[in-house]
Structures are given as C-alpha cells and as structure tokens.
User: Which sequence fits this backbone?
C-alpha cells in the first residue's frame, strides 16, 4: 500500500503538483480509517490531500486514471474490488521486458543514428520501456517538459514549433515501438521459452493498449478547472446613447462627452472611498489613552479612544495592448486608474505590442491625458510591429515579475489576437500565482472570443475574471466593482 501511494505521489510531482511529505503521511493515516477497497472512498482521500484546489482537480483525475486504471497497477489489498476499479492483470515477464529492451537497442544500432538527438532518443525509449513495465514516471516527466517548454523569443522566430516537433518526435517513437514490438512478438525469435500462445496474444494486446494510452496521455493536454472564475452578469445601462458606442467608434464630440462623464465618475468614487477610509481607520480601543482621558471625568470612561490604523489599499499593475482599436479602450482605462490613485497604494503601467515598456513615469509627471499623448509618441514603441502576446508575457515574466505580490491586482487590457504566434498561456498561470487576482479586459464582444487568431478562450482559463469592456457602460461597471 505504502509503495503504491509513494509511486503515485512521484508521478504527481513529476507533473508539477505540489505534494508535501506531511500530506503523504496524512493520506496514509486516513486510508487506515476508510475502506480502501471502495474506490470512491480511496479516490476521495487521495484527492482531498493531493489536489490543493479545484484548478488542480482535473490534473489529479488525469493522473489517477492513468496510474490506477491505465497502468493496471497491482495493489496488495485484501478483499474484492469493484469490477470497474483498479483491475489487475498478469504482469509482463521480466524475460520479455529484457528482450524488448534488447530489440530497441538493436534497432537503434542498426539505424546508426549519430545526430545530436541520439541521447534524447535513448531517454525517450527508456521512458517508453518503463511505461510498458507499469512505471509512467519518466514518460510523465518527458510530457511535462514539453508543456513547460518556453520558446526562445527571437526577432524572426516566434512560434511554438519547438513544442510541436518535440511532441511529434515522441508520437513517432511510440508508433515505431508499437510496430516493432508487435512484429517481434509475431516472429520466431520470441519463442525462446515454451510460452503458450495465449501468453503471446496477451503480450501483444498489452503492448498495443499501453502504447495507445501513452499516445492518448501525450495528446490530451490538461485543462484547468477554473470554477472560481468570476462571471459578470447583467450590467447596468448607465448611459443609453454614448454609453453603448464602442470606444473605437467614438467621434471627437462623443469622446469629449465620455471624458466629462469619466471626470464626474472619478469625483464620485473619490468621495465614496474617502468616506469609507475615514470610517474604517478606527481600530481597537486604546485602553491606555481612554484611561488617561477618563481622569477629567472622575475616572468614568466617557470618551472612548480608538487606535488609528492605515486603510488597506490594493496595488494595481496594468499590462495594456496599444495596437489598433485596443488602445482606444486602454487610454480611458488608464485615465480613470490614475485619476483614482488615492484609492490605491500604487498604480504601475506597462504597454506593449510585442515587448512591454514601463510607462508609469509618464503618468507620475504629467496629467493623465498628457501622459497618454506622450506614450503615443514614444519612439521605443514600434506601432508597426505585429502584436505578440506570447513574447510580451515572456518579457514581463523575465523582467517585471517582481512587481507582483499578494496585494497586487494585475489588469490585462487587450483583444488577445496574437497573429497566430505562440500564445504561451502557461505564463499567465505563473503571473496569477504571484498576484492577488488577474483580470482580463477585452474590448471585443464575447461572441468574437476564440475566432480567427484570438487566443482569448485559452487565456481566460488562467484568469480570475475575464470580461468584455469595449464601451463606457462596461467600463463604469468594472471600475465601480474594482473600487467599491
């Protein structure tokens, strides 16, 4: 029992699930209380200890099915198991496994491969051999390397071809190994020992089924269970005319009207938050000062003194796409955020088309509208470049990740259209883990998300909240929810 759980934990850790030794010990103690022959109870105990959140539940279920069902792990338990749970079949004889390994070496030597990928090929073959033997650890590590692989962002090569080629290489090796194993088992060389025909048939079926499961595991990417993502419901219609016009379609006159509405909104929110902060700065009763004040009332504490406390304010970091129609929405968003700086302890902004640039200094030394005009004329930003969200996220991760902490709200403003370049959505997960919450504002309507070169459906799985924000009414809804 202990060895089986430890092997399963090793597989989970290979898939980058964080499982501590204390959690393993807790799991083993709890398995002594429940009936481990009941798979529902067994699965519940393992999931409660190893899956930290609902976002990890999908990956846990995937590994559980592979290890306890796909690998047909032999569990030394007493009692009968359910018919569909943890089925056991005879293990492959060691002699056959040795013969399979010899065959792989012979095939590799006959091919005479001397390229730089020979060592990597040996590792893949060994991982597949372990998979056939019932140990998926090495194979899971190889698959995880592909999922975590960061492409080198260069000026001329910005795709995910490296990941695709690595995945294709494993697929080809699986198919080749399946063909060679089946051919070998059907040849006369397989009958070195007096095996029954039924044993040979079973081995053929096992090799085929196990390598098919390896191929399915490779091609099935884990999808995060983002049940905690905030869903925005029906929004309030603040302004019937100008409030429903997309920012990119505003005329100069309508733009001026929107600015006046935003100014009134800013003053309103500042008054509300100032009253809230003034009422929330009273902490616990200051006993010492209350007793001192009671002296003039003959020791009666008529005047209660409270300890003052600094109101807790969050930090805002914005990452704005400044290409095309997205910038028309981002400029209004930045204008409001910097006009409401008193509501936050810090506001820091980055803009990007393919690489992020820190533009916080523009807003610190200029009025928001003037700062926006200076950003538009900044020579560092190549407005003729192709938008590349993947490269922008990688550069932000490499150079500015320290700006995120558990008090920071990261707001990304963009349409998620990355010109079919590598989206690098796993980087968003790392950014989300560093900050308090990650919010994505998309100026496009939801019905256009995921169409064409839009990667929004991939990105939203890694966000705490994703909402459409392309007109004044939607922007007001979001700002009020953020501030109030």
Assistant:
């Amino acid at each position: 029992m202990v060895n089986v759980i430890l092997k399963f934990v090793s597989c989970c850790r290979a898939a980058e699930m964080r499982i501590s030794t204390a959690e393993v010990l807790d799991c083993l103690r709890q398995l002594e209380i429940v009936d481990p022959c009941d798979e529902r109870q067994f699965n519940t105990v393992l999931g409660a200890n190893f899956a930290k959140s609902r976002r990890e539940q999908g990956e846990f279920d995937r590994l559980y099915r592979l290890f306890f069902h796909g690998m047909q792990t032999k569990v030394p338990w007493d009692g009968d198991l359910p018919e569909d749970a943890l089925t056991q079949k005879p293990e492959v004889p060691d002699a056959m496994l040795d013969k399979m390994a010899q065959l792989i070496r012979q095939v590799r030597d006959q091919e005479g491969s001397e390229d730089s990928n020979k060592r990597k090929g040996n590792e893949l073959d060994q991982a597949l051999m372990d998979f056939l033997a019932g140990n998926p650890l090495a194979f899971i590590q190889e698959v995880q390397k592909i999922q975590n692989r960061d492409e080198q962002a260069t000026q001329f090569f910005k795709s995910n071809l490296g990941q695709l080629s690595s995945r294709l290489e494993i697929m080809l090796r699986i198919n080749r190994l399946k063909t060679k194993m089946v051919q070998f088992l059907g040849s006369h060389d397989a009958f070195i020992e007096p095996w029954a025909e039924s044993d040979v048939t079973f081995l053929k079926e096992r090799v085929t089924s196990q390598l098919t499961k390896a191929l399915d595991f490779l091609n099935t990417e884990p999808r995060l269970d983002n049940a905690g993502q905030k869903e925005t419901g029906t929004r309030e219609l603040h302004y019937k005319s100008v409030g429903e016009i997309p920012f990119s379609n505003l005329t100069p006159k309508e733009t001026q009207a929107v600015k006046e509405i935003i100014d009134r909104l800013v003053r309103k929110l500042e008054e509300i938050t100032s009253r809230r902060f003034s009422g929330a700065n009273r902490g616990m009763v200051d006993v010492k000062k209350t007793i001192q004040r009671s002296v003039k009332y003959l020791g009666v504490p008529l005047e209660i003194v409270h300890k003052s406390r600094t109101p807790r304010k969050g930090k805002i970091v914005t990452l704005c796409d400044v290409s095309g129609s997205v910038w028309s929405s981002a400029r209004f968003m930045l204008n409001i955020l910097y006009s409401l700086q008193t509501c936050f302890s810090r506001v820091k902004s980055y803009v990007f088309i393919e690489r992020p640039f820190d533009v916080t200094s523009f807003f610190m030394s200029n009025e928001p509208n003037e700062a926006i005009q200076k950003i538009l004329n900044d020579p560092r930003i190549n407005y003729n470049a192709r938008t590349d969200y993947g490269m922008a996220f990688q550069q932000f991760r490499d150079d500015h990740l320290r700006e995120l902490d558990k008090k920071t709200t990261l707001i990304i403003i963009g349409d998620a259209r990355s010109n079919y370049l590598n989206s690098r959505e796993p980087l968003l997960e790392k950014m989300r883990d560093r900050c308090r919450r990650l919010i994505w504002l998309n100026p496009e309507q939801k019905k256009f998300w995921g169409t064409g070169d839009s990667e929004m459906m991939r990105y939203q799985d890694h966000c705490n909240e994703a909402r459409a924000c392309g007109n004044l009414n939607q922007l007001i809804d979001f700002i009020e929810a953020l501030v109030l």
Notes: Confidence is low (pLDDT under 50) at residues 76-90. DSSP finds 18 helices and eight strands in the chain.
